[in-house]
Amino acid sequence: MLSLFLRYAKKALLVLLIGTMIAGSIMSPANKSELETMYTSYAVENYERQCEIIVRAGEYEGKAGKRIYVNNCTVNLPDDIPVRNDGDGKGFYVSEWDINVKESKALIEKLQANGINAKLQIAHSKSEDLNAAGRIANKSNPKLYISIHHNYHESNSTGYFSMYNPDNEQSEQIAIRLSNAIENNSQVPRRNCRPNTGYIGEMNVINDSTVPVLLELGFFSNIEELEQICSDSYVDYVSSNLAKEITLILNEN
Ligand SMILES: [Zn+2]
User: Fold this and answer.
1) Distance 58 CA to ligand 1 centre (A)
2) What ranges do the domains of the chain cover?
């Protein structure tokens, strides 16, 4: 009797499992976009404009994969960029998040000095990253959403660039203007602006009432460029000139 029951239970479990897998593969993409659409229309109707601009420091504290290990090299960094160690045997690293935070704070300070109602967005955990970051920003419904990042690729990769949503004319125009604004920094060369073809989490869920631009302000995987993008002089140049251009843009609208 018991063995018969067990055999039946096993079969039922298997059927349930396969059923769930099939339903999951068919249902989840449709459900996801449906949910996002619902969220967006809800947000547009209900959230008041609470600030003119949000500056997001991309990534979150301690995010794996967004770091450069510096065990085998000498690297000169200012005091406000920590060399971290998780005690996991991998050694010492610099986190993209720390660099993003430094640049974002400097930009916010300068915008506020210009009389702009600017808010800083910083994530401390995975739950506030990617799409979630965009949804959090939507609640403040800013005119502009600037997400600050630095790039990781080859050890000799170099350059900064901006990214825009291709279906949003203003996003492209502002991306170009912000790139132009920091062209003469004499440290990190300019690259062409790029469209976000759907893989940048925070830009995919931003409301139509907000113009998003993502800035990749240099390659931290290149040690020479890492030192430049962390330096007070680069951060000061970039934040000053971005703040100047953003203030112009906000005063035009
Ligand atoms: Zn990033």
Assistant:
1) 5
2) 1-46, 49-252
Tell me the per-residue pLDDT of 167-186, one tens digit each, with 9 for 90 and over: 999 999 999 999 999 999 99
203 Cα to the center of ligand 1, angstroms: 13
Q: Which of 102, 98, 112, 75 is nearest to 232 (CA)?
A: 102
Q: For residue 16, report the distance from its CA to the centre of ligand 1, in Å.
A: 40
Residue 5 burial (10 A CB sphere; 0-12, 13-18, 19+): exposed
Q: How far is CA 185 from CA 63, 159, 190, 239, in A?
A: 29, 11, 9, 11
Q: What is the pTM of this model?
A: 0.82
Per residue in 153-166, pLDDT (tens digit) is 999 999 999 999 99
Domain spanning 49-252: CATH 3.40.50.300: no
- The angle at the Cα of 115, spanning 112 to 121, to the nearest 5 degrees, equals 35
Nearest to 241 by CA among 161, 182, 177: 182
Q: Using the Cα atoms of residue 98, residue 102, residue 103 and residue 104 in order, give the sign of their dihedral.
A: positive
User: What is the strand order of the sheet 92-95 is part of?
Assistant: 67-69, 92-95, 84-85
What H or E segment, with its residue span, contains residue 94? strand 92-95
How far does the centroid of ligand 1 lie from the alpha carbon of residue 154, in Å?
A: 15
